[in-house]
Amino acid sequence: MLTSRFMSKIFKNFGLIVAGLLVGALATVQFSASAESTATATAPLPLDQLRLLAEVFDQVEHNYVERVDDKKLLTAAIKGMVSSLDPHSSYLDKNDYRELQEQTRGRFAGLGIEISPQEDGLIKIISPIEGTPAFRAGLRSGDLIMRINGKPVRSMTVDKAVKMMRGKPKTKVTLTIHRKTENRTFSIEVVRAEIRVKSVKAKLIEPGYAWIRITSFQENTIVELATKLKELAQQPLKGLVLDLRNNGGGLLQSAVGVSGAFLGSNAVVVSTNGQEADAQQTYRNSYEHYRLPSFNGDPLRTLPSIYKQIPMVVLTNAYSASASEIVAGALQDHHRAIIMGKTTFGKGSVQTVRPLTADTALRLTTAYYYTPTGRSIQNQGIRPDKPVDQNVNGDPEDALVSREIDYSNHLANTQNPDEKEEEEKREAEQLEQLRQFEEQNAKKTPEQREKERSRPPIEFGNNDDFMLKQALRQLKGEPVQLSKSPFERRLAKKKPRPAAAPASSTQSEIKKAPAPASGN
């Protein structure tokens, strides 16, 4: 029997947890001004389960081999509860919350890598951010981190691993990396630095043909994009490549603004639909829908009109996720651009970051998002109009690429009744790709393997960028070399059909400028 003192203690603490979880929220990961809200309960709380939680807490507190801090135990309970929902929901403690805010501003101290939830118990590198210590050290997309300063990551949460890699500039961290594409494990020392991510890069790749690369969607992305586009428009333009490869997402408003730079007035960019009324929104190409607090007027207002008509190609790959998929989906649905490259990651959900206290928050999946024609791309991704490889001889290492659908606790695509069947087919195709990949690797000479190991990572936008070359050929009306992957060609042919738009896309509009939000 639990004591009344303990029951009072545990239910007081649990009440704080429940209050945080039931707070109302706007769709898509956003930083709300306050955590105070009135929640409407849709069902009575399960008292039997709450009593069970209290019993477990009491047993741990009094019978565990050593004393456990109550606050630490409750924090672990909250983290476990939220992270069990899906790969993208999490409780943000003081350090997590500060780091998330720093990342959206594009400035933080660390190595400069974007990572995903664990794969096979290891931390997977989604992308080394260009120009950062991680990029210069030769880390690559798909690398798996096995140890950090000698400590195995299998015993760590992702949060703890991130904290170990963050640190003061000019200090060192040693990573033990497993590179599946080369079937080898090695250690590498990286010197931490203050990371100031340059969100937008641009240049003329040939007279009349411009290349714009967006590395992530941050608070300053729209302003940077407008500046670059105005500079490029000082010379006659015939075509534009928008490069979203390895872009893992970011602020929703930035994605809406980037899309709006190339779409007509008031065009639908994306809609969201969730359980709460606030999660049912339509975002259009209008200033009120992409305005951010840091803006001093509309950055796109004086954008040259040529960007509404100029022929466009959008480049994507398996590491283009979330906000990148919003942009690619909008430009594809409006027939504004040709999508080239690889099928994107397939993260079609949006998260709300809701402050709980002054320095903690809850990151909770609150809605699905839909392209302008009503497609949910959850687990399916944006499939290219023209599948193209990154390398001239194909990309056999694609067999090792993981997407949203490969997470064990991913959300289902509610529009796809055949999802389970498609998952099984994808798994079979991946196994066959992997068999072929290993067969090709076995035939390589030691000299060939060493040459591949010493090969620097592909720098997007340079003269050796085969996918970019194919985009240029598309803009010039020349033949394009399509992907050698049967898997990618099949996906491109079998795009999800436009669905009836969710209620949010026709019945609900954003009534006021939303707070900064993220499609991550």
List keywords for this structure.
15 helices; globular; 21 strands; alpha+beta; 520 residues; disordered C terminus; 6-stranded antiparallel β-sheet
How is the topology of this model organized?
Elements (H helix, E strand, L loop, with lengths): L3 H18 L7 E2 L16 H17 L6 H14 L6 E3 L1 H11 L2 E4 L2 E7 L2 E7 L4 H4 L7 E5 L2 E2 L5 H8 L6 E8 L4 E8 L1 E4 L3 E7 L2 E6 L6 H12 L6 E5 L8 H9 L7 E7 L6 E4 L2 H4 L21 E5 L6 H11 L4 E4 L7 E7 L5 E10 L15 E2 L31 H24 L3 H8 L12 H11 L9 H8 L9 H5 L9 E2 L2
Parallel strand pairs: 12-13, 13-16, 16-17, 17-20
Antiparallel strand pairs: 1-21, 2-19, 3-10, 4-5, 5-6, 6-7, 6-8, 8-9, 11-12, 14-15, 14-19, 18-19
Helix pairs in contact: 1-2, 8-10
Calculate the terminal CA-CA distance, rounded to whole Å. 45 Å
Using only C-alpha atoms, the radius of gyration works out to 24 Å
Q: Report the uncertain regions.
A: 1-41, 500-520
Give helix % range: 25-40%
Total helices: the number is 15
Strand residue content = 15-25%
Which structural class best describes the helix and strand composition?
alpha+beta
Any idea what the shape is?
Answer: globular
Q: pLDDT average, as an integer?
A: 83
How many strands appear in the DSSP assignment? 21
**Major sheet details:** 6 strands, antiparallel
